[in-house]
Specification:
about 180 residues; mainly alpha; three-stranded antiparallel sheet; 2 helices; about 60% helix; about 5% strand
């Protein structure tokens, strides 16, 4: 009986040792599996994150490309309208400049006006058509809202106001 008890104790001891060994192996295996699962999850999360970022980037790029095209068409339309309006203003200004002597605001006889265009629009020989030249007047015709003079036009005005206007005769002898 003692022998059976000793054998049972040895068997229990061996089984316990094997159970502890298996328990340790199960714990190590569980840790390896958890570690591998965490790594797999992190890899999946990283690749999914990258995929979602690329999808979001592509969608944003498409969306902003569409918005850019819309803005470009609207801006082009606005620029064209602005160019047409400016062109219309320039043409109206040029017509007004040429027809200036025939408007009621023009204080001189149109026959006395000579269009030169630049740097001023007209030189008026006031009274010349009547045979009695009274004065020579430089006239700049302006249209639009501001009527500001250009730098060159201001320079002409300043020289005339300083009375730095002279007469000169050139005589070429034909040979």
């Amino acid at each position: 009986m003692v022998l059976i008890v000793v054998i049972l104790i040895i068997v229990v001891f061996i089984l316990t040792r094997n159970l502890l060994k298996m328990s340790r192996e199960i714990r190590e295996l569980k840790e390896k599996i958890e570690s591998k699962a965490i790594k797999m999850f992190e890899d999946w999360k990283k690749s999914e994150w990258e995929l979602q970022r690329k999808i979001l980037e592509a969608n944003l790029k498409r969306e902003y490309e569409v918005k850019f095209q819309e803005w470009k068409m609207e801006e082009e339309k606005r620029i064209r309208e602005d160019a047409i309006n400016k062109s219309r203003s320039v043409i109206m200004g040029q017509v007004t400049e040429h027809l200036g002597p025939f408007f009621p605001e023009f204080r001189y006889n149109p026959k006395d006006a000579r269009f030169i265009g630049t740097p001023v629009d007209f030189v008026v020989f006031d009274g010349l058509s009547e045979g009695n030249l009274r004065r020579i007047v430089f006239v700049e015709v302006k249209t639009g809202k501001t009527g500001n003079l250009s730098t060159r036009e201001r320079q002409v005005r300043d020289v005339v106001e300083r009375r730095e206007v002279y007469w000169e005769k050139l005589h070429y002898r034909g040979e």
